[in-house]
Amino acid sequence: MEQRSILLAHMDDxxxxxxxxxxxxxxxxxxxxxxxxxxxxxxRRDVALTFDGGYEGAERVRAVLLNPTWGEYERNDLFxxxxxxxxxxxxxxxxxxxxAVMALGIEREIVGDIIESPLALICLPELSAYIAExxxxxGRATIRLSEMDLYSLPVRTEELSFKTDTVASPRLDxxxxxxxxxxxxxxxxxxxxxxxxxxxELCQQPAKEVGEDAILSVRGMGRAKLMEIGGVSKKGxxxxxxxxxxx
Length: 247
Known about the structure:
four-stranded antiparallel beta sheet, alpha+beta
């Protein structure tokens, strides 16, 4: 809770800056942080809030605050894309790149998404030259980084596999059980032991009602989305459709 309060206080400072100068932007945010910021600014009219991660569909994004009367921003002013070249005989993935970045003493909030095809990373402009010059190893592989056009990056799309089922009610434990193929008891256990997040916030209430478009995350198991709550079966149960994100 303290970290959330610090984040929102910082966002209020950025909002004040945006009102005076036209625009201001945070560093890279987690999905949970972006969710909190969205709720925090829901009723604000003195600033406009948008999120951008440097390319369409980005997961890690910057919060961009604009004076709604005259503020604007250019994506190229907020992001750099660095293409990562790896010797053909080497296998380097997301974890290798992230580990190498952290080994340089760079905080996670400096770097956005690490894209796997083409292999690239998004970062803040002010540190792009330093990263490109010093990030020369990932795992055992020698790598080379060079700047690339942001607008050449592919659009990130959600890949989900779908399931349909019926539940007595749209409780968290029931929806979780459908999404991950769990018994109700196992779903309740995961929720009560603090392994489940609802809309990016920890939730330990098995009976919590879940609405359409809700995101369910289970540590070590993945994420799912409640796509649809449908009609009622002859036995009085609700039809639901869930999507399981591919890992």
